[in-house]
Amino acid sequence: GKRKHNIAQHKLDEAIALIDALPGWNVAGTVRFSSSEGGSKHVFGKGAFEEIHRDIRRCQNTTAVFLTLDMLNGLQLSVIQKEWGLPVYDRYTIVLQIFKHRAQTMEAKLQVALAEIPFYKSRLVGVHKGTLDQQRGSLGTIGGGGEKEIEVKHRSLQDKELKLKKALSKLKAQRKHLREERKKKDLPIVAVVGYTNAGKTSLIKALTGSKSLEPQDQVFATLDVTVHAGLLCNRMKVLFTDTVGFISDVPTALIESFASTLEDIRNADTIVHIRDVSHPETVEQKQVVMETLRQLQLPPSLTQNVIEVCNKIDLLPQDEAEKLCDEDGFAVSVLNGDGLDDVVRRIHDQVIQATGRTERRMRIPMNGEHLNWLYKEADVTDVQPADGDSEKLQVCALMTDATYAKFKAAFKSKRKQ
Ligand SMILES: Nc1nc2c(ncn2[C@@H]2O[C@H](COP(=O)(O)OP(=O)(O)OP(=O)(O)O)[C@@H](O)[C@H]2O)c(=O)[nH]1
Ligand SMILES: [Mg+2]
């Protein structure tokens, strides 16, 4: 920022949060400079490059440098590392480190491993051109690097990639199976998305009381999609899916490797987008989320009905929080529960609309069979003794047309027998 002050403080804060997410890593010092246009091999202008080098040397305990830039190519990386004499990380490699550290399930581990491949590939061919999708045929021109060796390495990376993809697609098939089971049960699915650290896990925990959820003041605390059952008003059962947080300037390659995770969003009936409105960059974060959702090419019925929840209003001055309430509807604090009732009602209404559920009132026999069926297949919202008929119950239940047809079919054939 000594030249152009276009790198804001919160960008730096985010970078520091990324480093803090790695155990044993500490930020020894920060400097702000703009990278030069056009992606030169030194990344920065000559003066800046040397000035940064001087700053690094002044900071004695430095063991690595993190440039908060999207992704450096192989050439830039080798030039900078050589001249500064330290390992250099970009946002891609830092996020990879975090993912690697956090990945717990087999699927997350495989996905991280897959996300690493474009990085390794770019280091291989980067010396030549620095693109990810270099064709194998053009590898021959790398000077000095030992063509054969590079080709062998490249091929083994391809093999590894293939193996990982196979293993992942197996898991994906399992996941699909699970999803179909879920669909069969016809439970509505609510996907909670948002920028990393916005409060997704906290929200789901608050709405479902799920004990297995651990919100953390960390970026990328959640790497696996997890599903949690909850009850909305009228005792409607829904499934909430918690998703990996979004972040700006992380290349699509990384997002793609988590695509199967994000596929669960596509299967949702409703999307809840939770934002940390106390964050100075909340507007930019919203744009990142919207852009990521756009890249997922979701059906318009989903994207047009995203429920926006403005979280952490407890950290805002009262007047600002009130203004939000007027503008965007759902200003909440998941922390102290403010505003959550309205959100629940909205999710409830939206789910009913999206899944074509209607509340039906019906009179059913007392004997229990009908009611048991309804409890199992639909959402029973009210049960009363029927007026003027002591043998019957008056029941309200939420269900889709398909479920209603099943209900009628199930009991019609019984009557005939
Ligand atoms: N002050 C305040 N903090 C909150 C609120 N909601 C959540 N937090 C805190 O924000 C941090 C992040 O919450 P999480 O629920 O883990 O966020 P997340 O969106 O799941 O984050 P990732 O999984 O890392 O993407 C935690 O320290 C929460 O306690 C709120 O309403 N107010
Ligand atoms: Mg989370």
What this model shows, in words?
The protein folds into four domains: 9-89, no CATH class; 98-168, no CATH class; 187-353, P-loop containing nucleotide triphosphate hydrolases (Rossmann fold, 3-Layer(aba) Sandwich); 358-416, no CATH class. 48% of the residues lie in helices and 15% in strands. The chain has a six-stranded mixed sheet with strand order 4-5-3-6-7-8, with helices on both faces. Strands 9-11-10 form a three-stranded antiparallel sheet. A two-stranded parallel ribbon has the order 1-2. The protein has helices spanning 9-20, 46-58, 74-84, 91-102, 106-125, 147-185, 200-208, 252-257, 259-266, 282-295, 300-303, 318-328, 340-354, 369-377, 401-416; strands spanning 65-66, 88-89, 189-193, 226-232, 236-242, 270-276, 307-311, 330-331, 357-365, 379-385, 392-400. By secondary structure, it is α/β, with parallel strands linked by helices. The site of guanosine-5'-triphosphate has 24 residues, from helix 7.
